[in-house]
Write a structure and sequence with these properties.
Elements (H helix, E strand, L loop, with lengths): L3 E7 L13 E6 L5 H7 L7 E6 L2 E3 L10 E6 L21 E4 L4 H9 L3 E4 L5 H10 L3 E4 L13 E3 L5 H11 L19 E4 L1 H4 L5 H6 L3 E4 L5 E3 L3 H13 L2
Parallel strand pairs: 1-5, 6-7, 6-8, 8-9
Antiparallel strand pairs: 1-2, 3-4, 3-5, 10-11, 11-12
Helix pairs in contact: 2-4, 4-7
Length: 246
Amino acid sequence: MGRRTVEIRFYAELRDFVASPDGRVVRSFELSPSVKDLIESCGVPHTEVDLILVDGESVDFSHRLTGGERISVYPVFESFDISPLVRLRPRPLREPRFVADVHLGRLARYLRLLGFDTRYDPRADDAELVRRSVDEWRLLLTRDVQLLKHGELTHGYFVRATEPRAQLLEVVSRFHLQSAIRPFGRCAVCNSTIEAVEKAAVEHLLPDAVRRDQDEIWRCSDCGRLYWKGSHVTRIAELAEAARRA
């Protein structure tokens, strides 16, 4: 059996993963690969894909190719409903919850400061990150394209930016999180929620200047870290405003 070819066109931000400026790629093969395997052989992680059309018909990842097909591959849709077609995510993430890989510690901290539930452990290996994403229904954020090709992973995103603040604005914009921003709701260190606490109950733990000048104190419900309105409040408010404009 000779080699056969297909033409694939990747749309929108999926073009970031392929060398062709217009997103067109011609691929050849001998057997009958699944469309998922062929897409990932082009460098595009399956977690970035939400709709595949083969000769105009919507198919799932398991669809087998025979040669000669024209394939259109689209990213996750945010602006219109494609429910009549074969949407490739088993169900959407209704609540924005994240797990970040080892390279995105600053991004994880920024997301927490804006109130987003974000797991981050610099010791977690790839298998642990995938497990947390699947078991806890979290979107995996990573700079590792190969990690996004893990077969069990259903929700993942390749962060394009390299600077942490730009990464935050990218994630907020990409997933339309502006209306979900809730600054000062989570501990930046451990990700648990923070709650108001009586100053008298923790006064002995406060620095002298804070004990003298601050009346409102918050405490992390898990690690016990204390928070108050210092100069960082202005910086976080500015960060939140920049994210809302993303």
